[in-house]
Amino acid sequence: MTELFDGYHDNYRDVVQSSIDFSGLPHHFFMRAKADLLGNLIAQRLDTERPDMLDVGCGVGSLHPLLHGMVGRLSGIDVSSASLAQARADNGRVDYREFDGRTFPFDDASFDLVTAVCVMHHVVPAEWAQFIAEMRRVTRPGGLVCVIEHNPYNPLTRLAVARCEFDRDAVLLGAGKARNLMAAGGLREIGARHFLLLPWDTKPARRLEATLSGVPLGGQYAAFGTA
User: Which residue has the higher pLDDT, 167 or 152?
Assistant: First the structure.
């Protein structure tokens, strides 16, 4: 996986955009949707207003400019040193560190919020439980673990994954599987929300989508649980 993503550090956004061009929407639309969802979860599930956050598998840090003012200390880890170099150049105030793909380079209970955004489908399924265990380990008691993933039951999502060069070995997992992994890993108050159902960046569309978040049709979902 390290070699795969090192090769795309300088054109990551272009590769992703080419895979979703059929939607007529820019990559930023999808990143904004993720940031908005995380903002809602912070407000609803965490006691701290600006949580310390770790982004696991952060890549080139495309999400991080959208989190300014939403989180406190922000850290990101990735197996790709080339991607992290690009992330550091773009986001000078974020703490970026390399990791070996198995053990996160942080002490226990270091963060209020630990996320993995479209990362687990690159992890070997036999290692999913270990991955969730590491997310929980570095999360403070009462903090939140959140996995955002592609919805394998959405046909347009499957098309986008098939068109993406670095998703060729992806193994998609549904929200039910993600919730089961979290429960087995000892997380509590587990939930899920589907999003990116409607391809319109308008307030009425976003409000309608929020009311339909429990319907498993959105292009992506967030599964989350309390440590």
Answer: 152
